[in-house]
Write a structure and sequence with these properties.
Layout: H1 10-23, H2 27-42, H3 67-75, H4 78-88
């Protein structure tokens, strides 16, 4: 375990001491828990935040259509879509 020093504003220190008293834990334990929480929320375990990439798109429907046909279908209004389906039947 590494030993370190930190500087806190007086009001933050006073609030932290009150939490420690209520929880019956040391300031060191409160600091460790707080740091662990922040690291879990903001720093992903499997790399840095700069490495994150959105998931690759999957083809989930619109089978048999190419990219241009999908775009055309997606831009149709409800009425145009209904009329298009009626014509195909």
């Amino acid at each position: 375990m590494t030993r370190t020093q930190i500087q806190l504003p007086d009001d933050v220190y006073a609030r932290a001491r009150k939490v420690c008293e209520r929880r019956e834990i040391s300031l060191a334990e409160l600091s460790r828990r707080g740091l662990e929480y922040i690291l879990n929320v903001y720093a992903p375990e499997n790399g840095t935040a700069g490495d994150w990439q959105p998931p690759k798109p999957r083809r989930l429907g619109w089978k048999g259509l190419n990219e241009m046909e999908i775009k055309q279908q997606a831009q149709l209004t409800t009425t145009e879509s209904t009329l298009s389906r009626r014509r195909k039947k």
